[in-house]
Amino acid sequence: MKYLITGCAGFLGSNIAEYLLKQSDNKIIGIDNYLNGKREFVEALSRNQNFDFFELDCRNTEELLTLPKPDCIIHLAANSDIAAAMSNPLIDYDLGIATTQAMLEYARRQEVKHFVFSSGSGVYGEKPEATFFEDSFVGKPTSTYGATKLASEALISAYSSMFDIKGTVFRFSNLVGPRQTHGVIHDFLLKLKANQEVLEVLGNGTQYKPYIHVSDALSGIEIALLNQKSMYEVFNVSNNSSTSVTTIAEMVLSELGFSKTEILYEKSDRGWKADIPKYTMSSKKLFDFGWKIRHNSNEAVKMTIQENKNLLFSSVA
Amino acid sequence: MKNILVTGVAGFIGSYLAEDHLANGNQVWGVDNFSNGSLENMSLLLGNPQFKFIEHDVCDEIFIKKLLIENEISEVWHLAANTDIITSHAAPLRDFKDCAQATVSILEAMRLSKTKKLIFASSGSVYGNLGNGEAVSETVGPLKPLSTYGAGKLASEAFISAYSNLYGLESYVFRFGNVLGDRINHGVIFDFSRKLKADPKSLLVLGNGKQEKNYFRVKDCIEGMKYISESKAAKNECLIVNLGNSSLTNVLRIAEIVIEESGLLNTSIQVEGKDLAWPGDQPIIRLDCSSAYKFGWKCELDSEQAVRLTAQELLKLAQVI
Prior knowledge:
A: alpha/beta, seven-stranded parallel sheet, B: alpha/beta, Rossmann fold, UDP-galactose 4-epimerase, domain 1
């Protein structure tokens, strides 16, 4: 199979590329505009002869058309800088919807018949008592980031029905693992790099969410792609256990051996205005296909701290 | 008296809505880029001193922001969108952009000007094909739109929800059934009237004739939006309400009604026979409108009455009768 991966220099993109390249009959064309992605992630992949990379913005349709035609598009490019989008929400529109729109148009014009997209738990909005299933109500995202995910899903659903493109959407809970470029663990590590006296936590630490290790998520993606039956399908990819932010803060300090760091909390039950402090998500559809999770939420967090702790010593943020 | 902005004011629903706001003593600013609307629709508006028309694209958020600030506008009624679903197959990007980008532009302008109240015209097409034919309430999932038109509406809703939460908007999202009236310039009754004018002997029905939708009149639609958006039920959030009535009419029945109203005696109905009338067609949309009724609003005409009245109007306009 020949895959085109957008956002290939990002956390998930580089991990998916690495995973797919383990099969020698797969070919990958990676693209990234390096707005959020990292050159070192791409360099590591470039040693493989089945990997080709182009520094390219996926909204640049004319240049995209010059690339070799893939069998499948894995569209991951998006804005992951939530703080920047808070002061200018149009960033989310440009990077979260215009990108999906451009890639779907590319798929239509090039007749690429399979489109895979990374969505997230944010499409479900806030419902503290509910477990999110793929068929649950979606329609009240609290953040513009969540809105871009739901908008993209809607557009993929429409293209799938109008132009016979198979659509596969993965809604991830908190995805963690090596080469993380954002998220709570990444934040804590960067904060500790700057100051080891105190660790300031956003919110009161009670936020309680499922963390899934990318290695588990990748096996879930693979199983879903093998078993998908209808033209357009959505899969939750989540752990069935959760970890609190307080536990993460304590684990980070203990894994690093920082016994004297004081943890400072805020009063609010959430880290920022659009934060969903607690949710659970069912991945029953994937479990029914035989998906097994090897690392529970706490283990996934612990592994991720180990995999990323060199951030403390690196010169680049 | 309120200062109100209506986008898509030269369109079918927008023009009626502006007339209604003016009749209630409000000042109305209307914006339209004439991508679907017409000057003709605004013939009762343009002479009114309380009405100001601006020909402009709502995707220009800086322009809209300025308009909101300078005129101290307190409510935005956002109706601008591409309404011709059938053409979107050839130009899907335009369809989506007209809707989603326009909404985000309106939201940005509202955020920057601190305008708090938004009323948005969405559509039952956000539901997609839920399969079992049961009436859908506002809280069902999943939402899998079949057309880029429906996708644009759902994308708009998603952003309205996020902005309402983040920036404290009071927003009302109305998922319409099929709205009918004499200024409509597309849709099945419009098509049938024109076809009968061209050929009174036979009437071709696209699809299999079993496509079944809820039809209601523009007057009921406007009353419903006003009634519910005055309730203040959506403080700092986005309230989603299905708007229409619970009765349905299928396309074959519409063909019969149009022929009855035409007075033609020897017209035969030809059914094309395909399951989908066009790519992206949503053959059955059945909305559960009970949450709208709970506000105390009533839809006066049922689906068949709405179809019949509209058939009379459109047959006259097409000079069949």
